[in-house]
Amino acid sequence: xxxxxxxxxxxxxxxxxxxxxxxxxxxxxxxxxxxxxxxxxxxxxxxxxxxxxxxxxxxxxxxxxxxxxxxxxxxxxxxxxxxxxxxxxxxxxxxxxxxxxxxxxxxxxxxxxxxxxxxxxxxxxxxxxxxxxxxxxxxxxxxxxxxxxxxxxxxxxxxxxxxxxxxxxxxxxxxxxxxxxxxxxxxxxxxxxxxxxxxxxxxxxxxxxxxxxxxxxxxxxxxxxxxxxxxxxxxxxxxxxxxxxxxxxxxxxxxxxxxxxxxxxxxxxxxxxxxxxxxxx
Length: 281
Hints:
alpha+beta, 8 strands, eight-stranded mixed β-sheet, 19% strand
């Protein structure tokens, strides 16, 4: 959520008349940063990075959420879709998703790590478990780094992680990468199959992010910023750097992004409620 928008920002410097300043508002499952965007003047000078968590998950996860994405924000342009990866410790006797599913069915209650409750990796694992009828125990960590460290150490046998975090560990041979959660194989890792083609047809989960503006931002400004983003997202340099991180650029109109956000709100709201996911983990 930090690196990929900054890559776009490097390209946008050639498209926009003003320099870009990135400001991180960490913590609070993205609520403080989102609130800062909502409170900003709707003049096109303050934008936010809206994510799956802040736009689609938080409305179902947080009963007293201070904002309504549909009311308080305007989608400007989707920026990226990032793959998740299913990885296991080398001691797990599985070298394919089919073998992993067989092993998990023979070992109900297997513990798996995630970057935290209601994160994209956690939701991806929950959705896969529900689709396949697996009984798993979720162990939530405070971030991907500690979770991956324990996976590498063999404390836990498996996890779903962002591809940008998992790929370096797989390249180093510390974990085995069994599949990615995108609809199609990753350009940088064409030998790695997808979950959909192996054990769960139609399965797709991506972490995503895009530019949002405060409600009331004039439509001509939204369209101008979107046009600059489209030029940046079609830059071959950007596509190459995204691919290194297991992500793909997602060009499209603001209307397309808005429709996508609405569909993701419905989808992940159902998963959060069905799985009774809470921030306590």
